[in-house]
Amino acid sequence: MIPAEALADARLASATWSLLAEPGDETAGALRAVLGVTGALAWAVRALRTETLPASLLAELVPGAGRLDHATAERVRRGVDRWRRRADEADPRPLLDRLERLEGRLVHPGGPGWPTALDDLGAAAPACLWWRGAPGALGDRAVALVGSRAATPYGTHLAGELAVELAERGFTVVSGGAFGIDVAAHRGALAAGARTVVLLAGGVDRPYPASHARVFEQVRSSGGAVASEVPLGWAPMRNRFLLRNRIIAALAHGTVVVEAALRSGALSTARHAAALLRPVGAVPGPVTSMASAGCHALVRDGLATLVTSAAEVADLVGELGADGVQPPSSTSLVTDALDDVARRVLDAVPVRRGAPTGSVLRTAGVGEGEGVAALGLLELGGLVRRSGERWVRVAV
Q1: What's the whole-model pTM score?
Q2: CA of 341: how far to CAs of 43, 338, 350, 366, in Å?
Q3: What does the DSSP 8-state code read for residue 208?
Q4: What are phi and psi of 146, to 5 degrees?
Q5: Long-range CB pairs of 346-355, under 8 A, 24+ apart, other chains included
């Protein structure tokens, strides 16, 4: 039964809602948005005590500014019938005690550690997260790396490499802990000695896949976290995987699909991110590989930007002016403009001890007139300098 103290305690009320409603229940979310988490639960308790919802109870939700419209109120009526089936087992206190024994905690809207980025989901935001790991594991910079479970060696290599380099740039890697791209991304972050966050589709007490239990333990011991919107003991059902993807998209500043086929669930994460106006990147693969067809479709449809390196990912999802791909230096621009003679002369100029003009031209195999002209051009470009009677190459 729903405990009476949950009607006045936001933490208990949030946990109770996660027992009553399925993930992504926007009807429950709309009710919480209008009445607050405890007020919504108090209203639901009154409604659950009746066999047929009285019109007077439903009318309480509609009048006045900020209330529900009539269509949403009607959905709430149908929602009560769904919640009724779970009301007898909606006491979260035993589960919260067990979570504490697992050194976990419940984070909820308005409470400490709540990722406010989830509020962007509106009525689809989770009532709470069941959390095992460091409270601040997400940090200030998070990027989601997702992709196919049936990943190729190309995809898993790139996922791990991107995760390592993004972790070195200060990003927290967020993913779903699944086979293929997900676990490669988590392992890459761990290899870099960085924190990473795993979002599960089932309870945080039942690692899925079970073969990744040791990876999840490393995630927690390395300052990261394993989290879920469903309570302890709940199974990772198929629909919960897809619904979990919206949380991954919301938690991160941007999402990168490393490798995905046309029917990959990772594409739903990308679409959630795009709907939230988060940047989306896609890593290209061979045009003959069906494992990358989903990435190519995202780019072709204008939902994603093509990215090929951690620097480009940081440019896409990082801070403006701090994480952008650096433009080529003026020196490199001069180098790009050199003709064949100038390049040969530049290669012939020593970096340390320097060499006289004749030695440089002889090594380069050029005539005096064209060689001296090339040295002048190189000096103007800051690529060489004269030191007495010798020419020295400038290190760049």
Answers
A1: 0.80
A2: 83, 8, 16, 7
A3: S
A4: -135, 165
A5: 346/374, 346/378, 346/383, 346/384, 346/393, 349/378, 349/384, 349/391, 349/392, 349/393, 350/392, 350/393, 351/392, 351/393, 351/395, 352/392, 353/390, 353/392, 354/387, 354/390, 354/391, 354/392, 355/390, 355/391
Query: In Å, how far are 15, 83, 92, 152, 295 from 89, measured between CA atoms?
Result: 12, 11, 8, 43, 43
The structural domains of the chain, with segments of one domain joined by +, span 4-90, 128-317, 330-393
Q: What is the pLDDT of residues 24-38, one digit of tens each?
A: 999 999 999 989 999
> Mapping DSSP to helix (H, G, I), strand (E, B) and coil, where does residue 109 land?
coil
Beta strands 225-228 and 129-133, pairing class: antiparallel
Sign (positive or negative) of CA dihedral 131, 137, 141, 147: negative
User: How far apart, in whole angstroms, are the C-alpha atoms of residue 128 and residue 118?
Assistant: 10
Q: Which of 162, 141, 200, 175 is nearest to 266 (CA)?
A: 175
| pLDDT confidence tier of residue 333, bands split at 50, 70 and 90 | very low
Joined tokens for residue 61: 């939700």
Structure tokens at 382: 């800051």
Count, in order, helices (H) and strands (E) of the chain: 17, 12
Q: In this structure, what DSSP letter does residue 26 have?
A: H
Sheet architecture: strand order including 355-356: 355-356, 390-393, 384-387
Pairing of strands 254-259, 225-228: unpaired
Please give the CATH topology (third level) of the domain spanning 330-393. Arc Repressor Mutant, subunit A (1.10.10)
Of 48, 47, 43, which is closest to residue 32 (Cα–Cα)? 43
Chain length of the chain:
396
CA 378 to chain centre: 46
Phi, psi of 107 (to 5 degrees): -110, 140
Which residues partner with 142 through β-bridges?
172
Give me the CATH code for the 128-317 domain, please: 3.40.50.450
178-202 pLDDT per residue, tens:
999 999 999 999 999 999 999 999 9
**Closest by alpha carbon to 24, among 124, 132, 165, 137?**
124
Inter-CA distances, 344 with 336, 348, 362, 395, Å: 13, 6, 11, 16
Contact criterion met (CB below 8 Å) for 183 and 158: no
